[in-house]
Amino acid sequence: MNKRIAALILSFCLALAAVPLFASPASAIGEVMKAERGTPWIDGEIDAIWKRANRQKLTHRTGGEGTRENSLCHVSVLWDDEALYFLFELTDNDFTFEAEPGSPLNDCVYLYIDEKDVFGTTWKPGQTRICLTPAPGLSLYPMDGDAPADFEMAYAMDIDGHWNIEFKYVPHTLNLAKVERILMDFQYCDANPDGFVESIVNWSDEQGECETDSASWTYVTMKRTASGTSGEGFATVEEAAASINRTPVYPLRFISGTNGNHNEGAANIWDGNVGTKFCTSEFSMKSVVRMKGPTVLDGLIMATANDNSAYNGRNPDEWKIQGSNNSQDWEDIVTGDESFFDEVDFTYFAMRVESDKAYRFFRFYNRSCKSGCCQISEVVLCSTDQAVKDLDNVTEEVEHVDKETLVQYENPARLAARAPVSAEEAVKPVETVSVAEEKKVRSTSVLPGVITVSVILVGLGVLAVLAPKFRKED
Fold this sequence. Notes:
By secondary structure, the chain is an alpha+beta fold. Helices cover 17% and strands 31% of the residues. Strands 1, 2, 3, 4, 5, 6, 7, 8, 9, 10, 11, 12, 13 and 24 form a 14-stranded mixed sheet that branches. Strands 14-16-21-18-19 form a five-stranded antiparallel sheet, with no helix packed on it. Strand 4 (72-79) and strand 5 form a beta hairpin. Residues 8-30, 421-453 and 470-474 have low confidence and may be disordered.
């Protein structure tokens, strides 16, 4: 052995040491959630509106001491122009709520929101961490960062012994009517009645860095169009039409349109065949039809083409449906973007349209798409008899209970009334986890550092033993 071998050993040890010391923060791994538009009633019960929401399981374990796999957390998100709405469904066989408010030694959920899109070190203005614990007097708003501008929380145990938490978050700065996406993460702390944390599970964060780096969180996209939302997709045009209680209009006559690729011309979107498509890289993208007579548009159905799932970014992203009575002067009826669709094949999406003016000509118009090559297989216009529309107003009355009578319900007023301090002090960040508890919570996260230090010490020990021999050989 010689100095070069010793140098290689030393370099190896230093390289291992450098990985945890100098590696950049882990970034979001790409979970995908589209938040549907909808306004639930915050009472701890799962209203029918939640069925529209994308329900996702928290899967990345980032801490804890146990090995059990029987605890689960699912999260769903809705939104309207005023607030974000969260539903957390918790499953466990030994729920415990014995620790201080905000402590992970309670079974609880941490909600992370980055209103300012910092995408980096916490806690900057606009970032917040809120602890949601389904037990009276234990909820904390917030743990770190800014308190929400307003909130409501309610929780209930359903018939299967699972806790459901509903939370309404009113932002400070976000304009929910316009914002396209929001950076956030969700974390479930599964506590043990014996006083330690069984597991910590995240939605996006894989390394347990969400408390110090919002780049480990993921963007939730607000699903919208300018005049409404498309809702879920359907396999047939009949199912799509039934979902909005509207009637497709046939026949109509194709007039003109933008050039398409090969046989994928502008007339194909009106032919009633989802197997054909209008595909082009020529913008603006247009296709014009004439109706049999003046028609009031009250619904719209559009279908994706054959390979959107394989080639993302081909859905129309700046589209309009326009009306005219002379085929020259066009008026916008409804506008939208790619969030009307999903990246799926042969799928219909539908929405109701608010319009009271009749037109003889209609035009599908689109300015762009993400990939530069745009495609759509069907555009279906709807116009419905008033007698059928009147059925929209026939709804089952739901009797909502008075929230103030609910024991398992909180808002700022009730939180302040219960607290022995002022309302302003009640929402200040507080220290809730002792150093000893924090070590327990993050025991698994410390393990990689322990291993690295051990490797370095072993390497240095080897060098100390072999150093005399190296000198002799030299």
